[in-house]
Amino acid sequence: MAIAHSRICLIACCVVVLFASAAPQRFVGTSDGPTSNGVSPGHQTSKDSPRKSEDETCAPCHQKEALTFAQTEHHRTSSFPSQESIRGSFAGGSNELKIADPAPVIGDPGLTYKMTRSDSSFLVSAITGFTGQTQTRTEAVGLVIGSGVRGQSYLYWKGDSLFELPVSYWSDGNRWINSPGFRNGPPNFDRPASPRCLECHMTFMQTISNDPASNRYEKSKSIPGISCETCHGPGAAHIAAHHAHTPSTNESIVNPAKLSRDRQVDLCSLCHSGVRQPSGAGFAYVPGNPLDTYLGPSPHTSPGPPDVHGNQVGLLRLSRCYLASTSMTCSTCHQVHRPEEPASSYSSRCMSCHKSDSCGMFKKLGRKIESNCIDCHMPMQLTQAIISETDDTVIRTTMRTHRIAVYSPANIQ
């Protein structure tokens, strides 16, 4: 949702709704990594074999992880449209976004968006024209992108092609806005939703074309939200081995803890290493394989650090903490199966390596600095990637940098 391929992301990771029966199979490429390293053997599952949903297959044996992971922003980062998943209001009085009034003198037809419901459908209409001579285009929300912590964007189907709607929801102020990167008018319903965007918000969407830029999919073969297979790889062999009580139960699934540091970080880099383009069809990366075999290099060439949106791994790799460590990964701080904690609570991870009296602020503030290293050394910063221009208002957001460093007060939001 941000500009370029990050543009459909209002990162904020709407309880995910999965198919209850005959749920779609995830189809993957091959993995050549050794099973002793936690990488599942290479295979491609049958396109026609029925399969239960992730919750039904993983939760019975992994209840603790499944229960808490269902509450995370990752798991809720996309969903099918419902009253529970859509945060924007479709009720009268708060369901309109007026971009401009008609101005016949200068030939400007004006533009208003109106969000309405019809039975179980959530509709977005663009109304343009002059009094008594208006034109309306209406599309139904097909997918919800974003959990609503910062906001949400919405996609619609045109045949088997998926496009982004020009209106998004912004949590700050509980309001409708132009989708980031969209102009004030005329209404644009033609921005395609590419696989590269979707694979960071969905576990799987069956593509029709191998072209990484194609936005054609099979509607019935999709798993919204980030679920178990995104990090643990295809689970069919693991489930079969478990039911058969064979010794290969643990070797037929990816255990990230057994991967090398680089491969562990690759799991997060799939969606948190900037705007990188796949070399082939989307949704083909297999956890445990080198990510560089799937994604091309980052196009970031400016002398400064990457933008705080979407390239947390790139920023972390610039950090002295990361460079000085042989074992630090994203999981050193983040517990992926549990909802995110308040930022200051991560300070305890800092204190496992650092002493508070070595901080330049210790003499002034004493040991209370131990309760919040994060706001000083990983401050909130403005992103240049998510910008919405709605009428005469420019809406921007801040995100927390993952470059751990000493910052001047001017660089701390």
Quick structural summary:
The chain is α+β, with helices and mostly antiparallel strands. About 15% of the residues lie in helices and about 20% in strands. The model is unreliable at about 1-50 (pLDDT under 50).
Walkthrough of the structure:
- The strands form 4 sheets. Strands 1, 6, 7, 8, 9, 10 and 11 form a 7-stranded antiparallel sheet that branches. Strands 2-3-4-5 form a 4-stranded antiparallel sheet, with no helix packed on it.
- The protein contains 11 helices and 15 strands.
- A hairpin with a 2-residue loop joins β3 (111-118) and β4 (121-130).
- The protein has helices spanning 54-58, 63-69, 195-198, 228-232, 236-244, 261-272, 312-316, 320-323, 347-350, 362-365, 374-377; strands at 78-79, 96-100, 111-118, 121-130, 133-140, 143-145, 151-158, 161-164, 167-170, 175-178, 191-192, 202-207, 217-224, 380-390, 393-400.
- It is 15% helix and 22% strand.
- Residues 1-52 have low confidence and may be disordered.
- The chain has 413 residues and is an alpha+beta fold.
